Amino acid sequence: VRTMPHRCKIADYPDDTFGVKDPGHQRLVEMTIPRDSMGDYEKCSFYSYQTNRTILMFNSSDLQENFTIGVNATLQKCSEWVYEKSVFKETYTSKHNLVCDDAILVSHSRMIFYLGVLVGDIVFGWSSDRVGRKITVCVGLLLLIVAAFAVSWAPEIISFTILEFIIGGTNHGSFLCTNVLGQELVGPSKRKYTGTIQHMFFSIGLVYQTIVYYFSRDWQISCIVLAASCVIFIPYWWLIPESPRWLISQGRNEEANAILQKMAKVNGTKISPDVVANLTIKKEKTGSFKDLLKSKTMCLRAVILCFNWMAVCLMYYGVTFNAGNIGDFYLNFFLMGIVEFPGILSTILLIDRIGRKKMHLMCMMLGGIACLCTIFTVTFARETLRPLTIALAVIGKMASSAAFVCVYIFTVELFPTVIRNVALGGGSCFARIGSMIAPYFVMLGMSIGGAIGEALPLVIFGATSVIAGLMCLYLPETLNQRLPETIEDGINFGRVKKTMVVERNGVDETQKNLVGDTIDNDEL
């Protein structure tokens, strides 16, 4: 649904194109299409003359002296457009003329796609706990394939948006379920690698998507190729096992044992034939969203982390959406995908050394400041410093990729076991809000145009990231800390005992308060 550069079509000129064909065509464009304050052609209006300007143009050499732009003309909105086709031959936007008054529909479509992601996370999370990880993933992937092919022939924006909603829900819902399945199929020491590798394949998908766009340059061909790529998921039904942990939780120990025995055989090890015969998983009492609001401490931490989830997602998707507005679309989009690898790898290497809080704060500040700095490169030397503008945007994308990993781990470790899923779900919901509003900021920049329009979205993303990062200063560090289990543990997590200096018989003595008289470390 990318919007290509465009202007009104000149009705009196046969086979009008966005590019100028000859001097006569150039004069007719100058005469018909007004310019905006930045000197660019208006996209939605044209001058309508009562005089037959086509005949005058070819029969009078002093046409520009006789008819200057705007004389004896009325400004009207156009109903047909011509598009610049050097980047794309055709997009869904250009095919259905979703520009000018209808341009907002493009942002609505993107917003509803991410609304589908939110709904998919909820529905697939519920389904995977009820009917199993494997069947939920396989059904979701099958629906994704069907919707991906169907959207290639969507006749109008309503059906297109509905299919995008389904694609968003099934795509990300399946992604989360495979993440859970991968975590449950390996031991504790390998779990951080399964999640990281999966996110790296997400980045590989972005790079692959760019390659498909580059060689097809047509929205329909791209959709068909990407949908066909998903067909490789069909054999998953026969290739991936169900989660043994989920089977045990459902009392299906024999099935779990068969899977574990097969895994042991493949790994060249042996386990007892009845290793899970009498094994049960204790179902602990879980908390609710209300428990997050029971204390000022828990509520404040929830607000800070939810805002951070939104800020991370806003910058991650916003910078990606804005890639085509700051230079070469394909190169920038490729860089936005490839740069995620160093971002994720740096998190793996540093997060256990410098801590969750410092790592996340560093990522948010680095990405935010980089995006904010684009206002200088764009304002003072837009074309000359364009490579620097792109580099700053790429740094913002890399930092947001790293921050995604940090905020996930930070949320899991900061909240107690009984409400950990609630906190993680709440953060994920706020993340979807960030992804839903990101397209509107990009559209705002495109509508303003010029240097200001180019920098404005990045400035908004950067400022939000800096504010979110600074808010994290009020959160405690979770590195090498015993994870909280109960609500009380969560409230007291990160607190230190306050020391008091009292005077006895003229001598200063230091005493420690009772455990109940603790205060937050940010209050010291």
TrEMBL record:
Q: Which Gene Ontology molecular-function terms are recorded?
A: transmembrane transporter activity
User: Which key words tag this protein in UniProt?
Assistant: Membrane, Transmembrane, Transmembrane helix
Topology with regard to the membrane?
Multi-pass membrane protein
Under the heading CDD domains, the entry gives: MFS_SLC22 (cd17317)
**Major localisation:** membrane
Compartments, as annotated in UniProt: Membrane
Q: Give the residue spans that cross the bilayer.
A: 135-154, 193-213, 219-239, 298-317, 329-351, 363-382, 388-410, 422-443, 455-475
- SUPFAM superfamilies in the record: MFS general substrate transporter (SSF103473)
> What InterPro entries does the record tag this protein with?
MFS_dom, MFS_sugar_transport-like, MFS_trans_sf
Q: Which GO terms describe its cellular component?
A: membrane
Q: Which PROSITE patterns match?
A: MFS
- The Major facilitator superfamily (MFS) profile domain covers 54-480
Keyword Membrane applies = yes
Tell me the protein's name: Major facilitator superfamily (MFS) profile domain-containing protein
